[in-house]
Structures are given as C-alpha cells and as structure tokens.
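Query structure, 322 tokens:
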C-alpha cells in the first residue's frame, strides 16, 4: 500500500456508544511497563469461589504441562453445575494486546452469556505476556493447554469433538493462530474459531489503521507498540503463528466467525482474513458493526449495537455446536 495515500474522514461512531474516549493516551514503548503494572493492579481477578457464583458453576484452576522448555500453563475451567454429561467447550484466550489481561477477568461475562444457555464448558488460558515472553511463547502456551484438554477430555467431562477456540483482540489473533497450528501439527481439531476484533496483522498499515489513528481506543500507535513487544527482533521474519494474516494457506481450517467495528483500527485485517478464507474454499461468517470501535460491547454492553453483536455471536455458536 502506498504510504503517501490520503484517506477520507474516519467512519462516524455510533452515537449510543459515545465514541469510547478515543486514544488520548495510546500505548507506547515508553509507557508500556507503567501501563502493564497498572493493569495488573486494577484488572479484576475473580477467585474460583467468586466465579462459582453462589454454586451455579463448577470452577477449577489447572496447572498443566507447558510447551517444551516452557513453564506449566494455568487453565481456568468452568462449567454449569448439575450437568454430568460431557459438554462442548469454548477454549478462550483473553484480550489485552498481548501485553495485559488475565484468564480470570473474562470468565464472569463468558459464563453469564453462554455457559447455562448453551450448556457449554469454558476453559480460559493464562498465557505469558509480552515483552517478558515474546513469540512463540504465548501461542505455544495456548497450544499446550489445548493438547492437555483434548487428552484429558474424559476427566474434564468435555466433548473433545466439539471444541471451539475463541478470543477477543489479542485473544482473537491467538485463536486464529491456534487453528493454523492445530491444522499444521495434526493436533486437536477445533470445530470453529470465534474471532472477535482479532489482532491478525503486524504490518499495521491498512486503510482502517490510518483512518482511526488517534480516534479508536486501540489505535495504530498502541497496535504498533503491542506487536513490537510480541515480536521483538523477529519483526522482520514474522511467522503466521504470530500474525495469522501472514499465512499463505488458509485452507482446511475450522469455520470462522469474525466480527469487528466499522470505526475500528482492526477492521480491514478482519475483512481481508475472512476474504482469504473464502478464497481458500473455507467457511467464514463476517460481521461489521456500523459505528463500533474496538471493545465497544465492553464499553457499552447495553447499547443496541452491543446487544445485536452478542445475539449474533450466540446464534453462530448455537449453529456450530449443533
């Protein structure tokens, strides 16, 4: 793409969403350590007892073997109480730009949204964060956890033939990478990949990235900082297992669900990835939410657009699990 090309004004934000506050303080190499420390201090980390929600869910923390030469991986496993049979599984990677977030904070919303309604188990992965751990550490953590879950499906009362990998933002990128890894290694085969505003392309040079610079809560500066933290000196030889948009073969992948906002930095890479799956003969369902920015449904969960996005994701999960 010609870097001198100019673009029209950015797409407008949905008025009900309120614009999300823009990116007044983007993530930069200079403030990364301080922002990570602040996130670790203030982000909720619900205890297993809190996640059990008064006895509605069974919750366990598992320490499982990690990748070769890596530490053990923590998985947080949850399922509705009172369902004895093996359940389908959502194997989930949290967001946070590869540099923040934790496996526990995302579970309350996932459990409320889907566990009872869909009779679904959830496993959330505590993968190592960049820049303390660079690629391939985080995705290898996720892969090791998935292999363990598949090998111990009977003990975990999970239906190993009905596993969906999913995540939001960085977690969506990890889920897409995991689908590529399982295909290429002959590992556990997911039946679907749920990719919500996924981070897929380290090149960070799309029309949407330039349009939304300084406007989207996760803007081009933050995105560049996160990719550099993950890749380090590998930034000039980027693996598709780090940035799935780099993959040249998207055939033989599980059906994908992608959604992203029209007013979002990551819009175009999600559109391009869905198109590449179609061109490879695969199945992808793509939704572009008009006026939505990065993380819109977390920022304004009761907004009409957020409720529509949640319903549409739920319907896709119902179809893929059936």
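Result returned for the query:
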């Amino acid at each position: 793409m010609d870097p001198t090309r100019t673009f029209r004004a950015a797409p407008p934000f949905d008025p009900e969403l309120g614009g999300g506050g823009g990116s007044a303080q983007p993530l930069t190499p200079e403030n990364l350590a301080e922002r990570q420390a602040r996130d670790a201090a203030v982000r909720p980390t619900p205890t297993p007892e809190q996640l059990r929600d008064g006895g509605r869910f069974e919750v366990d923390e598992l320490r499982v073997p990690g990748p070769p030469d890596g530490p053990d991986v923590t998985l947080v496993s949850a399922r509705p109480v009172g369902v004895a049979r093996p359940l389908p599984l959502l194997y989930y990677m949290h967001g946070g730009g590869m540099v923040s977030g934790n496996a526990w904070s995302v579970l309350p919303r996932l459990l409320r949204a889907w566990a009872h309604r869909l009779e679904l188990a959830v496993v959330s992965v505590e993968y190592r964060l960049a820049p303390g751990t660079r690629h391939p550490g985080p995705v290898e953590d996720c892969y090791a956890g998935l292999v363990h879950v598949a090998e111990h499906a009977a003990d975990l009362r999970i239906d190993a033939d009905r596993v969906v990998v999913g995540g939001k933002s960085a977690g969506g990128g990890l889920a897409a990478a995991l689908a590529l890894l399982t295909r290429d290694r002959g590992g556990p085969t997911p039946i679907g990949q749920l990719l919500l505003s996924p981070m897929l392309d380290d090149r960070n040079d799309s029309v949407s990235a330039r349009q939304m610079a300084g406007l989207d809560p996760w803007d081009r500066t933050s995105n560049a900082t996160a990719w550099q933290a993950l890749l380090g000196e590998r930034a000039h030889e980027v693996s598709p297992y780090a940035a799935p948009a780099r993959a040249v073969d998207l055939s033989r992948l599980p059906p994908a669900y992608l959604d992203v906002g029209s007013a979002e930095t990551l819009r175009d890479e999600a559109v391009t990835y869905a198109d590449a799956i179609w061109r490879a003969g695969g199945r992808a369902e793509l939704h572009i939410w008009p006026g939505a920015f990065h993380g819109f449904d977390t920022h304004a969960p009761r907004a009409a657009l957020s409720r529509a996005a949640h319903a549409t994701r739920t319907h896709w999960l119902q179809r893929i699990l059936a």
